[in-house]
Amino acid sequence: MSDEAVESKTGKTWSRWFKHLDAAGGKKMTHQEIVAHLHDKHNVRPWWQQMVAVKTLRISWNDGTDLVVAFYPKGEGKCQVVAQHAKLKDAKTSAKMKKFWADALDRLKEILEG
Q: Which domain holds residue 73?
């Protein structure tokens, strides 16, 4: 889904929605709460509520860290996947998780591209 399409139907581009949801506390919201926020505060229509809500995946782990996975459209049939693992305890753990997520995304790419 292009930035132009989402902006024409919702009033914001993908990056503006991601920034807005982060500022609105989206990291702590469930999928249903994001959908309700989009409906109540922005009058976004139901189909687009779902589209905006599922473009980011937010997970809070028991260790207190947060993972945000975002999907950015990159043309017909392609997207960029970005994993951001936050609140890691130190630089060593950060480097370890950076390698972990890079390897995981490489494996996903291999699976999807066959």
A: 3-113
11 Cβ partners below 8 Å, 6+ apart? 42
pLDDT band at residue 1 using 50, 70 and 90 as cut-offs: low
Tell me the two tokens of residue 70.
Answer: 């975002």
Cα–Cα distance measured from residue 41 to residue 44, given in angstroms and rounded to the nearest whole number: 8
Q: Which residues contact 101 (CB under 8 A, 6 or more apart)?
A: 83, 85
Distance CA 86, CA 76 (A): 31
Is the pTM higher than 0.90? no
Domain count, the chain: 1
For residues 50 and 31, give the distance between their C-alpha atoms in angstroms, rounded to a whole number: 9
